[in-house]
User: Which sequence fits this backbone?
């Protein structure tokens, strides 16, 4: 997805071009493009009159941000404590094997990104997996294998 | 919406709302909390709406999508008022039946009632279910009754009356005194007395002061803050407005985790509604007191739950904490006096104001007052949100309320306090849970996550899990944490993979003590806790890993093998067909076997075998 400077400007306008809006602006840009395009970071630095290196330090410090393009579909496997003790590592292993993706990686065709998350607050239904924000509950090695197949099929 | 210009107006409005609701005969509460929502609650709400429309059920009936009811294991939950009939595990195709029989009619849908596992009897009412009987749901209880999207619903149950009381005649000092009398201590982990913190902030020099709400809820396995802010945001906000009045703040922030989009949305809606009514903004209820609240989202960093890191991140910087020698109540956000409290701490405030500090102080133990909400999850039958008086024995929480462990498995330990906490073993099951007792046991309260572990969980693996978490989340500012936690992780990983040397346990202990003494902030200082507490109670498991290269709980992949029990295998072929690695060999109707070289120990065959023929050793 190409970065559109007008869109970036609109996001900046919404929060106000001031340093304390930085995180909120970057979150919205990251959400819009699934990552932080380089031009957008430069634009925000210019408009907020902040040094570019400060923006990059924020972008690399927080887990939510990505500086490389991410897939159209994003899968989050929860690795919170409740999910861990109920078998999240097995889900992760299976997904890695079936889709040849490791956490943080994206398929070459930009179809799919795999990430982990430290608890999404649905612990009573552990282990959970999120596909584009939709929660799949009480997962098992068998269920994740099925999900991986479906995701593969979806992208053809 | 009309703007309320006096305190009396609020009472008039409340009466009007109550009058408007007088003719509601039945109210269907559908849980839209974190557990039920993902388990199908969202769909149910829509189906109930369609049913109501089809049957032309109008003003006498109400559909109320509410916050978390707590009993997540039995979700999606639907409760029919006024009798409070409790329906569990409701499926979409049962909605029509419920409406027909229990909403329009006055009958019960037997098959949806809760069955008491002890007696086998059906239980009709919410309040009679053992899970609820043993709790004191004074803070979270409202969440399950609250129609999330409407401020009028909160007002109808006496909402904002604590604010009215404060503005009618209490001086800020009196408000602080009341909170001090209550003995309320911070629910975010540290347990610092809330009234004392407010007083310091009130006394701090500066014209501009801030109130803040910590909704970063970073402890994995805890979701009470999410449930409160998402399900009953006005209760938290009312607490914050009262706090701002006491401290002398006119501006405030809610710092909410990025992973909780619904909490952000519902809190923002609540702020807008309160502002429209004049319960927030300029000249609240016509008085001289004004307050503006702003929501900020976090960006997935655990350390931003720490107060100084949180404030740095609000300023647009990276979330690095600073030393504790300067207090945030004196110099916090933009170096101005700032008062930060946790979501649950704030939610307690309206109750304390309405019912008095004395009433609150009568609940709990000598030094830990009131109740605490725990998210009781993991290997437990009744997972969910539990609220009990401080000092309630662990046994009561796990067995009487939690319903014990599923599958007849043996209780091994409960992990509390998140990555800074520790594990409490079976021998301490009678522990009366409060701040002091948990600390004495080598763990801590944290934000209230309780993760129950059974015989199938490996304690060394649990320690490794938390160290891995902390390696990822260490901000890297101080060396003991940046390097030390990494070394701990390497050592424990070596144990899990059978590469540890004799003497490693002692070396690990020495490293733990060094980090504890020298790290900069709470994250680093407490990072050895998961190791130290498991070493304290489960040293034999560490020794088995190091000396015998054996994982007693059969978890650590490098130390186990999968094989097939020839006596039990029927040759059905399910494992062979399902194995994604083609590691199972065998002819149909004949005994199968697993090629150890190919097997990746993924567990698919183990899950799928109906005859229990897969053996892990
Ligand atoms: C590493 C670390 C993480 C923390 N995470 C949280 C958190 O997620 N939520 C929270 O309320 N407090 C958290 N705290 C505690 C806060 O620093 C602070 O003490 C608390 O928000 C104060 O509110 P309270 O007095 O009402 O508990 C954390 C502390 C540390 C050291
Ligand atoms: S631990 Fe996975 S949702 Fe909380």
Assistant:
């Amino acid at each position: 997805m190409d970065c559109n400077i007008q869109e970036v400007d609109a996001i900046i306008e919404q929060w106000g071009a001031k340093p304390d809006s930085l995180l909120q602006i970057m979150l919205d840009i990251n959400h819009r493009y699934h990552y932080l395009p380089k031009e957008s970071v430069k634009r925000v630095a210019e408009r907020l009159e902040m040094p570019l290196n400060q923006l990059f330090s924020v972008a690399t410090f927080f887990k939510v941000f990505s500086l490389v393009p991410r897939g159209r579909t994003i899968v989050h496997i929860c690795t919170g404590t409740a999910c861990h003790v109920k078998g999240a590592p097995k889900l992760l292993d299976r997904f890695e094997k079936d889709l040849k993706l490791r956490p943080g990686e994206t398929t070459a065709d930009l179809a799919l990104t795999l990430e982990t998350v430290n608890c999404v607050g649905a612990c009573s239904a552990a282990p959970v997996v999120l596909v584009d924000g939709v929660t799949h509950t009480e997962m098992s090695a068998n269920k994740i294998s099925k999900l991986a197949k479906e995701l593969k099929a979806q992208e053809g | 919406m009309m703007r309320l210009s006096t305190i009396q107006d609020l009472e008039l409005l409340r009466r009007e709302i109550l009058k408007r609701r007088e003719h509601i005969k039945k109210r269907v509460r559908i849980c839209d909390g974190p557990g039920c929502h993902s388990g199908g609650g969202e769909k149910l709400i829509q189906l109930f709406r369609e049913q109501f429309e089809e049957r032309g059920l109008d003003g006498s009936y109400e559909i109320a999508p509410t916050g978390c009811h707590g009993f997540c294991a039995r979700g999606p939950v639907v409760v029919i008022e006024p009798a409070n009939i409790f329906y569990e595990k409701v499926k979409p195709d049962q909605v029509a039946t419920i409406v027909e029989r229990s909403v329009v009619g006055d009958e019960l849908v037997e098959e949806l009632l809760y069955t008491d596992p002890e007696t086998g009897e059906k239980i009709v009412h919410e309040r009679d279910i053992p899970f609820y009987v043993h709790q004191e749901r004074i803070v979270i209880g409202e969440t399950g009754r609250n129609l999330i999207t409407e401020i009028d619903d909160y007002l109808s149950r006496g909402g904002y009356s604590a604010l009215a009381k404060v503005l009618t005649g209490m001086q800020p000092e009196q408000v602080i005194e009341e909170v001090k009398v209550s003995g309320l201590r911070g629910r975010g982990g540290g347990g610092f007395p809330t009234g004392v913190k407010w007083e310091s902030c009130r006394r701090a020099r500066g014209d501009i002061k801030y109130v803040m709400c910590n909704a970063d809820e970073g402890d994995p396995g805890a979701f009470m803050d999410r449930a409160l802010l998402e399900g009953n945001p006005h209760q938290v906000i009312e607490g914050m407005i009262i706090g701002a009045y006491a401290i002398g703040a006119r501006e405030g922030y809610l710092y909410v985790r990025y992973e909780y989009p619904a909490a952000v949305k519902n809190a923002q809606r609540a702020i807008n509604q309160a502002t429209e009514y004049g319960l927030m903004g300029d000249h609240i209820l016509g008085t001289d007191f004004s307050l503006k609240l702003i929501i900020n989202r976090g960006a997935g960093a655990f350390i931003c739950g720490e107060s100084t890191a949180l404030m740095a991140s609000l300023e647009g910087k990276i979330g690095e904490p600073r030393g504790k020698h300067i207090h945030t109540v004196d110099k916090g956000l933009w170096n101005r006096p700032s008062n930060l409290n946790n979501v649950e701490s704030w939610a307690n405030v309206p109750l304390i104001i309405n019912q008095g500090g004395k009433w609150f102080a009568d609940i709990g133990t000598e030094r830990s007052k009131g109740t605490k909400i725990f998210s009781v999850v993991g290997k437990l039958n009744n997972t969910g949100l539990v609220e009990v008086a401080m000092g309630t024995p662990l046994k009561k929480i796990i067995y009487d309320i939690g319903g014990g462990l599923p599958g007849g498995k043996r209780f091994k330990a409960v992990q509390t306090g998140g990555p800074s906490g520790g594990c409490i073993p079976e021998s301490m099951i009678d522990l009366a849970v409060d701040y002091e007792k948990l600390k004495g046991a080598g763990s801590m309260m944290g934000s209230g996550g309780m993760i129950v572990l059974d015989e199938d969980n490996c304690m060394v693996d649990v320690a490794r899990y938390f160290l891995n978490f902390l390696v990822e989340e260490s901000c890297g500012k101080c060396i003991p944490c940046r390097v030390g936690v990494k070394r701990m992780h390497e050592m424990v990983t070596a144990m899990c993979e059978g590469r540890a040397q004799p003497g490693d346990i002692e070396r690990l202990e020495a490293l733990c003590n060094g980090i504890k003494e020298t790290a900069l902030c709470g994250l680093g200082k407490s990072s050895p806790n998961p190791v130290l507490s498991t070493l304290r109670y489960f040293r034999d498991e560490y020794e088995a890993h190091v000396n015998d290269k054996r994982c007693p709980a059969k978890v650590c992949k490098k130390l186990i093998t999968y094989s097939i029990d020839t006596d039990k295998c029927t040759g059905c072929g399910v494992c062979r067909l399902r194995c994604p690695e083609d590691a199972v060999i065998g002819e149909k109707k004949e005994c199968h076997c697993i090629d150890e070289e190919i097997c990746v120990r993924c567990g698919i065959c183990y899950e799928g075998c109906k005859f229990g023929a897969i053996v892990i050793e």
